[in-house]
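Example S7 (structure tokens).
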């Protein structure tokens, strides 16, 4: 009697990889030229808090875009395990950093979506990251945190969207124009009960880093 070997069961497909992309290149022009990544927060550089929020929100892979004072940031901040890339054109605005970051993720390969966060928003923590990350629905996904119905960060870009986003990213507008042009495709994820979307832009904002 001939025995036949049953076909091997197909291996389960790997879960989608949503990588964190932290834009931390700003020079703090309205903060007297203090790089935002190095602003002190809970006795450590602010960039460390932003990375921790991405990781605790479920992003095991994190790419960080540096610009102003990049060498000092590398020396002072603990960024072990992150892929750190530098944007030589950081002074041109956030759009250039977004392009550099998306190119870094593309070069890494295997990433299905980018979850983009900004270093100067310490009120946005792991809970908001996790909620927006949970909105991933495919490589064409577009999602963003919403605060009382107003779109904010973090935002999620499926990998099939990266080329279009990079082409539209200019100056300090980042992905704003692309998102506006595709607003019907953007899933808004309410995070008003989980985060505070303030920016650290001027000297008057620094009190938010105390305590």
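Recovered sequence:
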């Amino acid at each position: 009697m001939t025995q036949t070997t049953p076909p091997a069961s197909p291996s389960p497909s790997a879960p989608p990889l949503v990588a964190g992309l932290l834009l931390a290149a700003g020079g703090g022009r309205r903060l007297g030229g203090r790089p935002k990544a190095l602003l002190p927060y809970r006795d450590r550089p602010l960039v460390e808090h932003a990375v921790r929020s991405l990781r605790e929100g479920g992003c095991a892979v994190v790419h960080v875009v540096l610009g102003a004072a990049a060498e000092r940031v590398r020396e002072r901040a603990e960024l072990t395990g992150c892929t750190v890339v530098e944007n030589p054109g950081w002074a041109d605005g956030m759009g250039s950093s977004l392009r550099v970051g998306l190119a870094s993720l593309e070069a890494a390969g295997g990433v299905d979506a980018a979850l983009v966060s900004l270093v100067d928003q310490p009120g946005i923590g792991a809970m908001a990251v996790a909620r927006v990350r949970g909105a991933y629905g495919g490589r064409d996904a577009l999602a963003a945190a919403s605060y009382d119905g107003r779109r904010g960060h973090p935002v999620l870009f499926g990998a099939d969207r990266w080329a279009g986003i990079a082409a539209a990213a200019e100056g300090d507008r980042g992905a704003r124009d692309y998102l506006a042009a595709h607003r019907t495709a953007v899933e808004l994820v309410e995070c008003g009960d989980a985060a505070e979307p303030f920016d650290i832009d001027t000297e008057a904002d620094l009190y938010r880093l105390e305590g």
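Notes on this example. The chain has six helices and nine strands.
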